[in-house]
Amino acid sequence: MPVGILGSLAICSVLYVAVAAVMIGLVPYSELGGPAPMAVTIDHAREAARGSSLAGLLGMMPVLVKIAILAGLTSTMVVQVMAQPRIFMAMSRDGLLPAWMGRVHPRLGTPHLTTIATGTVVAVAAGLTPIDVLGHMVSIGTLFAFVVVSAGVVILRKTHPELARPFKVPWSPVVPILSAAVSLALMLSLPGETWTRLFVWMAIGVVIYFTYGFKRSRLAGADAVGRPLTAS
After folding, report:
1. Cβ distance 31 to 40 under 8 Å?
2. Alpha helix (H) ranges present in the chain?
3. Is pTM, for the whole model, over 0.85?
4. 154 and 198 both lie in a single domain
5. CA-to-CA distance for 157 and 105, rounded, in angstroms?
6. CA–CA separation, 50 vs 36, rounded Å?
7. Are both 192 and 142 inside the same structural domain?
8. Domain containing 189: what range?
9. What is the pLDDT of residues 126-138, one digit of tens each?
10. For 226, left (φ over 0), alpha (ψ -120 to 50), or beta?
């Protein structure tokens, strides 16, 4: 599994870098700051080839590329929407969220209540929020998670060295520290209002944690009485 994950990341990274290099070669980078840079690139390529032998070949390319972009974005959104209800379910079973969020459908075996709630919130946010704001919020949320996970690798190796670790991050703590630093640097490139939204969202989470989850966390309770934590 670790080899497959790292191999997939390596392949995707190479492909992303190659696509970015082609895009920058076709279009000035200053014109690629919009919500659909790939579509802008293919439109430029079609205009540049107008009147040449490649005009016919590139005629349908914008439509095909945009369909592929929509398909890729849709699959990514579906994966994220599927993951979030299960995160809520795991938090609920730990006591951090109300018990109803951990309920599973008796026939389908899925967290149906949190799936409905997540889908509703996502649909409302997508319909009422500008796409650039959504993009910044998703970016800063993802990067912040990377920072927290990277820092957690270093901290857990010191505080809980007894945990079972099927896969260990190589060259620790150098790799996780570099990961956190790069993610934080990317976060700093985002607009100030995006940071404000992050702090507001975090404040809401902190209030929920200390007013509800702090005393109900089963994992924290097990750790407090000296029982070893186990990896899930």
Report:
1. yes
2. 2-26, 37-48, 55-59, 61-94, 112-128, 131-159, 174-188, 192-208, 218-224
3. no
4. yes
5. 37
6. 22
7. yes
8. 131-216
9. 888 887 788 888 8
10. left
**Secondary structure letter of residue 100 according to DSSP:** G
Q: Tokens for 123?
A: 């649909």
Same domain for 83 and 36: no
Per-residue model confidence as pLDDT tens digits over 25-42: 888 888 887 767 877 887
Alpha-carbon distance 130 to 149, whole Å?
Answer: 29
Residue 61 pLDDT = 72
Assess whether 41 and 96 both reside in one domain.
no
Sign of CA dihedral 90, 96, 101, 102: positive
The answer for 76, left when phi > 0, alpha when psi is -120 to 50, beta otherwise, is alpha
Cis amide linkage into residue 228, ω under 30° from 0: no
110-131: buried (b, 16+ CB within 10 Å) or exposed (e) per residue?
Answer: ebebbbebbeeeeeeeeeeeee
The Cα 232–Cα 223 span in angstroms is: 15
Count of domains for the chain: 3
What is the residue-wise DSSP string for 145-168? HHHHHHHHHHHHHHH-TTS--SS-
Please say whether the beta carbons of 76 and 109 come within 8 A: no
